[in-house]
Amino acid sequence: MNGKWLEVTADPIIDEKGIAISCVHVIADITERVRAREALQDSEERFRTLFEFNPNPYHSLDADGHIIEVNNTWLDTLGYTSDEVIGQWFGNFVTDRYKEIFRGRFPIYKERGAIHDAEFEVICRNGECRTVLFNGRVSKYPDGQFRQTHCMFADITDRKKTEMALIESEERFRALVENASEGFAIINADGTIRYESPALLHKCE
């Protein structure tokens, strides 16, 4: 009726003999409720299409942190099958160090509605650990209640290894320089001294 959705209920009126003698009809306009439900369904379909075909690993969690869906990239990256992960608590797929971190962060994530660059160490099926960064958002029902999370992660394991190797290299270089018997200095292009080794400072005393 004029593009509106109506909900009609009918309750019979029974006389003392148990015979229906009339009926009460109640008509309610539920157009907004239906439109909200359709909008939610459209939104969820867009999310599902986006994440299912996204080259990044994706998973969705329920209110208790259990996995309710993953895309193929997630499964391929970590080496599991869908049957091995659906229904499992996500904390079972992170290292012990991050298990409690997840337990503490998840309620905050649900309250804030989004998560950005959250670092975790996930465990592959073959036992290998990978360092990843999670980004995601929370979807809700029309009444504002929590529905599920939508998360993707980026594997930064190689980047972390490179960063650690660089730090270790710098530490070895610093130790070598600071314990060298010969003094030297690093001088900027404008002639200012950027660094003087301990041995050089000692000789200049």
Give structural attributes:
32% strand, 9 strands, five-stranded antiparallel sheet, alpha+beta, elongated, Beta-Lactamase
- Kindly provide the name of the CATH class of the largest domain: Alpha Beta
Q: Within the CATH hierarchy, at the fold level, what is the topology of the largest domain?
A: Beta-Lactamase
Strand order of the largest sheet: 4-3-7-6-5
Tally the beta strands: 9
Give unreliable regions as ranges. Answer: none
% residues in beta strands: 25-35%
Q: Estimate the helix proportion, in percent.
A: 25-40%
How many distinct folded domains? 3
Approximate shape: elongated
Average pLDDT metric: 81
**What is the element string, with H for helices and E for strands?**
EEHEEHHHEEEHEEH
Q: Gyration radius, to the nearest Å?
A: 31 Å
Question: What's the number of helices?
Answer: 6
Assigned CATH superfamily of the largest domain: PAS domain
Major beta-sheet overview: 5 strands, antiparallel
The CATH architecture category of the largest domain equals 2-Layer Sandwich
What's the short story on this structure?
This protein is of the alpha+beta class. It has 6 helices and 9 strands, in the order E-E-H-E-E-H-H-H-E-E-E-H-E-E-H.
Overview of this structure, please?
With 205 residues, the chain is α+β, with helices and mostly antiparallel strands. It folds into 3 domains: 1-53, no CATH class; 55-155, PAS domain (Beta-Lactamase), CATH 3.30.450.20; 161-204, no CATH class. Helix content is 39%, strand content 32%. The strands form 3 sheets. A 5-stranded antiparallel sheet has the order 4-3-7-6-5, with helices on both faces. It is elongated, with a radius of gyration of 31 Å. It starts with 5 loop residues before the first strand and ends with a helix. The mean pLDDT is 81.
